[in-house]
Amino acid sequence: xxxxDNSNYVLVIGSSNIDLNIYSKKLPTSGETVTGGKxxxxxxxxxANQAVASIRSxxxxxxxxxxxxxxxxxxxxxxxxxxxINTDYMIHDLSESSGIAFIMVDEKGENMISVAPGANANLLxxxxxxxxxxxxxxxxxxxxxEISTDTIEEIFNxxxxxxxxxxxxxxxxxYLSPHILRNIDIIVPNEGELYGLHSSLNLGDLTLxxxxxxxxxxxxxxxxxxxxxxxxxxxKGSIIFQADTDIFTxxxxxxxxxxxxxxxxxxxxxxxxxxxxxxxxxxxAVKYASAAASIAVTREGAQDSMxxxxxxxxxxxKLEKLRNRGEL
Length: 328
Ligand code: ATP
Ligand code: RIB
Prior knowledge:
The chain has eleven helices and 14 strands.
């Protein structure tokens, strides 16, 4: 049986990077040099991070990305395979080097990131078409925006011919045409991306208080045809907006000691996709995602920080207990 004949898998398509991290007391300002930091080379890239979060939380996971024909590309594929991710569909670029991210993290866990996409930017629509069956047969398809918009459009066009639940993490935010948005089931922006997306679609002014602003932005964006918007709010958790019922549900997160938030959003999205793949409803899936991301922020690195299912279950129970007691 071919792998794609059994549709119970999460398919992540996106970027794979090597993260070059410096952890120091403070972030430099423009023109300033800060010394005394600690260096670490980590595996990252939004797509690869989300694939690791998905498999560690218990779903069969396939990952498509383009890497350079270099030592970094080999490292990425080998590490993702060790995780148990199916990397058979990954592609080597003959002209570009692998994606690299320079990341600076300060003692409060705040970060600055600069990415040289390299091979990631060369993942082309025709390479996506070569994997049409894999895309159409997936239960959940997850995409972020460190690859070209044409490629993203092609992925969702093909996925729409099957039954996959289509998730887009609009990060880093670029212009998204109404056509792409119509083809997505769930969009997961952070707060800045929600407002950026609203503004890029020329949906009018958002003049209300913070809560009203978030609700108006979600309702306006849903008019493009997206049924579910999940906005992540850092330490404040996340808000699910279900357009068919016009219901907003706040899912809190746990109060933890933050070390490094790099990959927190990726952890949230990978776990969300994985739990949906396991047949749970959206609210339960977001609770698991929140429980997982509250672990990821307490650890250094991106892929290294992704929790396993047993650890997520522990935090999920804590979160439920606090919610039931009305303490969150
Ligand atoms: P990043 O770019 O840092 O990966 P993001 O901007 O995409 O993250 P956030 O909204 O900051 O997304 O965080 C995603 C999720 O991670 C939140 O919804 C929350 O569940 C969890 N999280 C983030 N920051 C914290 C924190 N300080 N404490 C606990 N949980 C957090
Ligand atoms: O979301 C975090 C990721 O963004 C990092 O791992 C880095 O590679 C950048 O792509």
